[in-house]
Amino acid sequence: GAVVSQHPSRVICKSGTSVKIECRSLDFQATTMFWYRQFPKQSLMLMATSNEGSKATYEQGVEKDKFLINHASLTLSTLTVTSAHPEDSSFYICSARRGSGNTEAFFGQGTRLTVV
Amino acid sequence: AQTVTQSQPEMSVQEAETVTLSCTYDTSESDYYLFWYKQPPSRQMILVIRQEAYKQQNATENRFSVNFQKAAKSFSLKISDSQLGDAAMYFCAYRRDSGGGADGLTFGKGTHLIIQP
């Protein structure tokens, strides 16, 4: 099966700093990648959709200037949380889809972000 | 906008028994996909089963099967012969089919499944 690797798995940063999370498709080219956020004991909420070489599409209520998404290649998408605050602490999960249409999206293992 | 509802925050079943997890959804789309994902304590999302809305036949994957009722917008998951390894959070998810593959998933709130040995 396809493998999606997310790095780091855990990160602690100070309030006001920025942190970058990487999502890589290891054995396939991902035309589309998705970023989700999961609060403790809650569901996953789609934050944004990124297509290689174009701007990300953000869901309503997600601040695009705070959550910068870059999908510079067919195997890498990054999420940068800028000027992080404690309320940004959460579990962030990416997924990557190979091709289009009726293809499955594979999930990374997630990143636990703690802002102190 | 589409919504997914899982009305059972927690379910418990004896090992080797059968359990059914409920899911309903709301959409105005005619073409879409429905999924059940498993999230164990490791937090890795694992696809359990998928159903295309245009297919009338219910999807089956070994011990896992679904009861897809399109008119009722219901999509329940049945786990037969429950095993200890089935213990996890189970999320029902919806994805519309716009044809381009750029649609993300809408998840329900999840059901915590406990397997009693």
Plain-language structure description:
The complex is a heterodimer of chains A (116) and B (117). Chain A is mainly beta and 116 residues long. Chain A is 0% helix and 55% strand. Chain A is built from no helices and eleven strands. Chain A has strands at residues 4-7, 10-13, 19-25, 30-38, 44-51, 57-58, 67-73, 76-81, 90-98, 105-107, 111-115. Chain A is globular. Chain B is mainly β and 117 residues long. Chains A and B meet through strand 4, strand 5 and strand 9 of A and strand 6 and strand 11 of B.
Along the chain, the helix and strand elements of chain B come as EEEEEEEEEEEE
Largest sheet descriptor of chain A: 7 strands, mixed
Helix and strand composition category of chain B: mainly beta
β-strand percent of chain B reads over 45%
The proportion of residues forming helix of chain B, as a percent range, comes to under 10%
- Alpha carbon gyration radius of chain A: 13 Å
Shape of chain A: globular
Q: What is the multimeric organization of the chains shown?
A: heterodimer
